[in-house]
Write a structure and sequence with these properties.
single chain; about 200 residues; mainly alpha; Arc Repressor Mutant, subunit A; 10 helices; elongated; TetR family transcriptional regulator; Homeodomain-like_sf
């Protein structure tokens, strides 16, 4: 990598880090000027490295995903259901609190941004995959109700529901996590086809 390419890559990383830092501090709609200033670069340098806000949103989303992935710890599938639900909800609460500033910022611009909508869809798909992995046994027992159950479990532990609990109902983190746990436990313990026995 030659010097010019290396400088460009450092500038891109600095811009993305500055963008995310401003959002984390509560500036949910940072301007190009504020982002560039925080990164210690000129506005011209910002737009040289990112052709538009869409490309910056995509790069910032990738950094958020890296931070989220660093928190993820697979829940062992052989644990009793009660332990799996507790561990899963604790981990989701931690991740959602970390993601909260970015999610709130994205919500303001998402209707007008294909990049942000793509980020959200990818995040929901990832959570759905974790739900299916963690509760594979219970989903298998649900028979024809498998997909609706997986949908409901995903809704219970993704940002839209967490935002309702934290931002609209003003629950504490502990109370919001307990609500998630109660919802997921109730869904998983709902009646299942005759002859099938859920793991406890």
């Amino acid at each position: 990598m030659d010097g010019r390419v290396a400088r460009s890559e450092r500038s891109r990383r600095a811009i993305v880090a500055a963008h995310l830092a401003l959002i984390d501090e509560g500036d949910l709609r940072p301007t190009g000027e504020r982002i560039a200033g925080r990164a210690g670069l000129s506005v011209r340098s910002l737009w040289t490295n990112f052709k538009d806000m869409e490309s910056l949103y995509a790069a910032t989303g990738a950094l958020v995903n890296e931070r989220r992935d660093a928190l993820h710890r697979p829940v062992p599938a052989d644990l009793p259901l009660a332990e799996r639900v507790a561990l899963f909800c604790a981990q989701r609460a931690e991740a959602l609190e970390m993601l909260a500033p970015s999610a709130r910022a994205s919500a303001l611009r998402e209707p007008f941004s294909a990049a942000l909508r793509a980020n959200r869809a990818a995040n929901v798909a990832r959570v759905r995959a974790h739900v299916e992995e963690t509760f594979a046994a219970e989903l298998a027992l649900a028979g024809v109700g498998r997909e609706p159950l997986a949908d409901a479990l995903t809704v219970a532990c993704t940002w839209s529901t967490w935002s309702m609990l934290r931002d609209i109902l003003h629950l504490s983190i502990a109370d919001a996590r307990a609500n998630m746990h109660r919802t997921m436990w109730g869904l998983l313990m709902a009646p299942i086809p005759t002859g099938a026995t859920p793991s406890r």
